Amino acid sequence: MDRQPGKRGVLVAQKIEYSANFKRNYVAVFAFFLFFLMIVSELVLALSIPAFVRREDAFANEIRKRRMILRFDHARHICREIQENSEIIAMEKKLLSDNLNYLAIYLRKEASKLTVDEVNTLDPLITQMYKFAGRLKSGKSFSSENRLDSSKYLDKLVQKVSDAKPQMNDF
To answer: How far is CA 40 from the centre of its chain?
Structure first.
């Protein structure tokens, strides 16, 4: 056996050195993998945020549309419950219920296709109709009946005509 005592120490040292290189390469590959994973996740996040926001806007618009339709249905329900205590309230109820019924036909056909602009236009109108229905239900009308006392005017007119009659007979 031709071993030299120092050669064994050199082999062990080389083995340790190779082992350290392997560990160093393994850690470097793992660090590169983590860096690559971080870059890819940031890109995915940057690209997915606009899609997420668009989806959230769509959900918000759908919720707003549903609330508008619920308010509309509630306004129709209140309109059916209005007591017709006077002729004015009865006419105003008829006008409001006709408008709600025509709008119901439109919403039944087009509710699923309503755009954001259409919802923005219809929502304040439906809210206003809802308030009108509540006011009519409480017995308050929007117009008042003013009786015109025409007797003064008629008396003056009749007097002028009667004064003018004798003059007409003179001819």
So the answer is: 36
